Amino acid sequence: MLFKRSCGWLPSHFLQKNFIKDATSRRKDIWYHFLFTLPPRWLQLEGLAARWLEGTAMYHDYKIVLKDDVQPNTEERDVRGAMLRGWRRTCPNCGRGPLMKSYLAVRDSCPVCDEDLSHHRADDGPAYLTILIVGHLMAPGLIWAFTEFRPDPMILASTFTVGCVALSLYLLPRLKGAIVGLQWAKRLHGFGACNRG
């Protein structure tokens, strides 16, 4: 159901949440709520609405996609190969160029094939995966070493601390590269989801 009295059109869940009390005085708040709290895919506007938004101050926060200019790219990408190339910290597209410019910083583009890599959103994923893997390897190892050998607690703690740190430092950039490769292969976050004609 759409609400059409004085504010154009709005989904009925705005009314159910008591968002609209006085529709005529809250027209700006309604547009602000519509533009900034709903997912960006709702901003795939066409025609006059998109051209109107280009002239407002709100436009710089979102990328408006005109449907006439978009041609979907449906070519399949090899997910396993892209993740393996990312694990080796090379470009997920060509596998030759370096993916990282430092320990964890991903390059904006590949120096060999010029693939745009700035769209990646690995965020905390590599850290979570590193904790998951290191924890599941080290915790049983710690219990096994303690029950089997009964070493001095300081020796046990220092050995496993060094092991945890070393394994974490080894896995973190490789898992980040694998996640960037997965995002590239699945065309997530702007990795070639559409081509402009």
Could you describe the 3D structure shown?
α4 packs across α6 (153-185). The chain folds into two domains: 13-70, no CATH class; 73-197, no CATH class. It has six helices and two strands. With 197 residues, it is mainly alpha-helical. The longest helix has 33 residues, at 153-185. The radius of gyration is 25 Å and the shape is elongated. The chain has helices spanning 13-16, 27-37, 48-54, 79-87, 125-149, 153-185, and strands at residues 70-72, 194-196. The protein has a two-stranded antiparallel ribbon with strand order 1-2.
Brief account:
It contains 6 helices and 2 strands.
Helix content: 40-55%
The class by helix and strand makeup works out as: mainly alpha
Mean pLDDT: 76
Secondary-structure element sequence?
HHHEHHHE
What is the chains' assembly state?
Answer: single chain
Features:
two-stranded antiparallel ribbon, 45% helix, elongated, single chain, 197 residues, mainly alpha
